[in-house]
Amino acid sequence: MNQQQQQVLNEINSFVKSNGGSLSNFYVGVTDNPMTILREHGVKLHKEGDSIISENTVAGAWPLAYEAEARELKAFLIGQGMTGRMGGARAVSTNVYCYKITPETKQ
């Protein structure tokens, strides 16, 4: 894992810890368009100024430089207990996203 991946991993771990504490309560994926894919998963979002606000669950996205880095980090997080599917994604997917699983979200 390179330095940028480690930094994103640390940020995701902090995000999880401050919003539920268990990796198994969160879904992880990679995408080229975090807003669109989060909406497809049932996360209700709206813009407030420059911020994107989630209305029904905590959600976040972190960019990496290369698709291979994003996929590697996603695989690592799934291996650590986060929910997600291997494969998938469209186009050049360099953003790692995750959200807390709720009854309203679709995995």
What order do the helices and strands come in, and which of them pair?
Layout: H1 3-18, E1 26-31, H2 34-40, E2 45-48, E3 51-54, E4 59-63, H3 67-79, E5 95-100
Antiparallel strand pairs: 1-5, 2-3, 4-5
Can you describe this structure?
The protein has 107 residues and is α+β, with helices and mostly antiparallel strands. It has one domain. Helix content is 34%, strand content 23%. The chain contains three helices and five strands, in the order αβαβββαβ. The chain has helices at 3-18, 34-40, 67-79, and strands at 26-31, 45-48, 51-54, 59-63, 95-100. It has a three-stranded antiparallel beta sheet, with helices on both faces. A hairpin with a 2-residue loop joins β2 and β3. The model has no long low-confidence stretch (mean pLDDT 90).
Summary tags:
3-stranded antiparallel β-sheet, 107 residues, alpha+beta, 34% helix
Summarize the structure.
With 107 residues, the chain is of the alpha+beta class.
**What structural class do you assign from the helix and strand content?**
alpha+beta
Q: How much helical structure, as a percent, in the residues?
A: 25-40%
The proportion of residues in beta strands is: 15-25%
The count of strands amounts to 5
Whole-angstrom Rg: 13 Å
Strand order of the largest sheet: 1-5-4
Unreliable stretches: none
Elements, N to C (H/E): HEHEEEHE
Number of domains: 1
Q: What is the number of helical segments per DSSP (H or I, 4+ residues)? A: 3
Mean pLDDT: 90
Overall morphology:
globular
